[in-house]
Design brief:
36% of the residues lie in helices and 24% in strands. It is α/β, with parallel strands linked by helices and 374 residues long. The strands form 3 sheets. It has an 8-stranded mixed β-sheet with strand order 11-12-10-13-9-14-15-16, with helices on both faces. Strands 1-2-3-8-7-6 form a 6-stranded antiparallel β-barrel.
């Protein structure tokens, strides 16, 4: 992957070094030369943006296989043809997704049904990873119950739909939250992922590439069940994590969602967590039951990640909008999630050689292929 992959018609998202032009602008590749790249005059909300010669541009180009990113400058412009000529990068290995020493793991947290404590888990899991020195961003992709920002008592003025529509860059919709984590509100904007235009598609993939280069973990809180948007995140992520409880119907739903996922794609590394366990013995028994049934009937090994105890502290923390990983760090439930985060951090260190250069890069490539073949 490099500048040899540039071809006319490819979508471009760009920003400038100018204090007067702070938005993310749309453009396309018009022609490619060994020394210069001709691009269409950038647009914003359908209007041409008259950028001047000498402006420094940060370009992200969707080549159809990956995202090429580099910084260049405007050499001259053709006003009658509504085009700009920019300097071609001098080094061919300029993709944000290549040979990075930065490892970023993309984890999707899902469940077969609502009410299993998935969102409370992912918030406290994110905070626990942050306490271990990891840089974590949490994307709220739950269409029906998008409430991560509410539970964290965090004001989010913008969300992922502003990125898709080109109103904001993804760095502008990231909000700081308690515990040192960052969040991206999703809500109704997530459903737009099911029907993206080429420009919207380019913006969101560029956004995910940005996250890869700035975070150690990208955690996605999906809705319960298996809509198109949920499965896209599951199949593109490095690790889908299924959360259930010991209740019989929750166990049945967990098995069902695992079965449906495997019927569409067996090349996933699913892990299982049992939440709201009355005793350690109950947690262990449920983990064994579900993993055993999946192994026997679906011929697939789900990794039993662990269990989390039932605790009144959880409901209290939700009412108070205060994550128990911060307000009650010595509680049994906080300790259980902290142990899961510590295990993840240890496993990640051991897998750095495998994940480096793959992490979210692999996610971006798989995400692009999913929508290309949809």
């Amino acid at each position: 992957m490099g500048i040899d992959d540039l071809k006319p018609g490819q979508e471009i998202s760009l920003t400038t070094n100018s204090a007067f032009y702070k938005n993310v602008y749309e453009s396309k590749v018009v022609a490619v030369d060994k020394d210069m790249l001709c691009i269409s005059m950038p647009c914003y909300k359908g209007l041409f943006i008259p950028l001047n010669v000498g402006f420094v541009l940060n370009l992200r180009i969707n080549t159809g296989a990956d995202i090429l990113s580099f910084t260049s400058e405007i050499l001259y412009r053709n006003v009658s043809e509504h085009s700009l000529f920019v300097r071609m990068p001098t080094h061919p290995n300029v993709t944000e997704n290549q040979s990075s020493s930065k490892s970023c793991k993309f984890i999707t947290v899902t469940s077969g049904k609502g009410g299993v404590g998935k969102t409370s888990f992912i918030i406290n899991y994110a905070i626990s990873l942050s306490k271990l020195g990891k840089k974590v961003v949490l994307l709220d992709a739950d269409l029906g119950m998008a409430n991560v920002d509410v539970l964290l008592k965090t004001n989010t003025r913008y969300n992922i739909v502003d990125v898709i529509d080109g109103q904001k860059g993804i760095n502008e919709v990231i909000a700081e939250a308690p515990g040192g984590i960052h969040i991206i509100a999703g809500g109704s904007g997530i459903q737009k992922l099911a029907n993206l235009s080429p420009a919207e598609y380019n913006r969101i993939t560029c956004g995910f590439t940005y996250l890869e280069s700035h975070y150690d973990y990208v955690l996605i809180d999906t809705g319960a069940g298996l809509s198109k948007n949920v499965t896209s995140f599951i199949f593109a992520s490095d690790e889908p994590l299924v959360v259930t409880t010991p209740e019989p119907h929750a166990i049945t739903d967990a098995y069902s969602i695992i079965k449906v996922i495997l019927e569409e794609n067996r090349d996933v590394s699913m892990k299982l967590i049992v939440n709201k366990c009355e005793t350690p013995a109950e947690g262990t028994e449920v983990l064994k039951r579900i993993t055993g049934v999946v192994k026997n009937f679906l011929n697939y090994s789900v990794e039993p990640l662990g269990y989390i105890p039932e605790s009144r502290i959880v409901s209290r923390s939700i009412k108070d909008q205060a994550p128990f990983a911060l307000s009650q760090p010595s509680s049994d439930v906080a300790k259980a999630i902290r142990e899961l985060a510590e295990k993840e951090a240890r496993d990640q260190r051991g897998n750095d050689a495998r994940i480096t250069g793959k992490g979210l890069t692999s996610f971006v490539s798989k995400f692009m292929n999913l929508f290309k073949n949809a």
